[in-house]
Amino acid sequence: MAKSGTFSNLHDWLISEEFTSARQARLHSIYLAWLSLLANPLAFAGFAVVFLLVVVAALAPVIAFHDPFTQDFAIALQAPSSVHWFGTDEFGRDVFSRLIYGARTTLYITILVTVIVAPIGFVIGATAGYLGGWVDVVLMRITDIFLSFPSLVLALAFSAALGPGIENAVIAIALTVWPPIARLARAETLTFRHADFVIAAELQGAGTGRILLRHIVPLCAPSIIVRLTLNMSSIILTAAGLGFLGLGAQPPMAEWGAMAASGRQYLLDAWWLTTVPGIAILTVSLAFNLLGDGLRDIMDPRNG
């Protein structure tokens, strides 16, 4: 009963509006966001899948029952069984273990691309929106050029120019993902460009960099985070497409797109080689979309 009473008091404090420090206010906001996420079944399902992906990638050596790189032609193309849950591939490697290690590759590409495009997209968009004039025209016309091409086609072109490999695939995908972030950052910056607190900061002698970092970034962050989360599904699909065409992760590295490509010639006899990684790509992409939609509902003050 004492523990229940303590939990009840903590819950009452978290949902109250009385704070004595900025830390308490942040905890209050985080707790309310968590309650909003729980209230949205689809968004919470997306969060659960993404969280499971992170756990699986982190614990891949523990979860995988077999070595994903060891070849054994004696057991090649075995159907799913109690020993090999998702069967074996044409080289006798366990598909389940390779799927688990492929989660690491997918998460690595997704996080690295996001880390690259977030600052690039924000700097370009915020600079264009804040300075305006010819700077805005030049930066936005460059952005329009990138947006005029389908992202997968542009990623294929960059990958073909840079050569196959996971690092080059990350660069190619990043070069195609930043334009929507820049557009959004510009639109958000234009909203706050002539706000009273920005003008007050300018009158006090604050430089452009300080205004962008201290005043514009915190206000643009919610929309940028939502957009980045939604972009992760397209990053996964593009990475899988590059891997499917042999321009992404190279053998023997496990990657879902490459796994699906290797099973094409055995599609009728060994359906699991293409179906299993395909379902993984679909599930994770859908999860990021659902999570992004939920975060938009939570973080956009206009929805409150």
What does this structure look like?
The protein has 304 residues and is an all-alpha fold. The protein has two domains: 1-39, no CATH class; 41-303, MetI-like (MetI-like fold, Orthogonal Bundle), CATH 1.10.3720. It is built from twelve helices and no strands. The longest helix has 37 residues, at 95-131. It is elongated, with a radius of gyration of 23 Å.
Question: What structural keywords apply?
Answer:
single chain, mainly alpha, MetI-like fold, 2 domains, 12 helices, 74% helix
CATH topology of the largest domain: MetI-like fold
Distance between the termini: 36 Å
C-alpha-based Rg, rounded = 23 Å
Structural class: mainly alpha
Number of domains: 2
Q: What would you call the shape?
A: elongated
* Share of residues in helices: over 70%
Specify the CATH architecture of the largest domain: Orthogonal Bundle
Instruction: Tell me the series of helices and strands, N- to C-terminal.
Output: HHHHHHHHHHHH
- Unreliable spans are none
The CATH class label of the largest domain is: Mainly Alpha
The total strand number stands at 0
What is the strand content?
under 5%
Major sheet size, sense and barrel closure: none
So how many helices? 12
CATH homologous superfamily designation of the largest domain: MetI-like
Mean pLDDT figure? 84
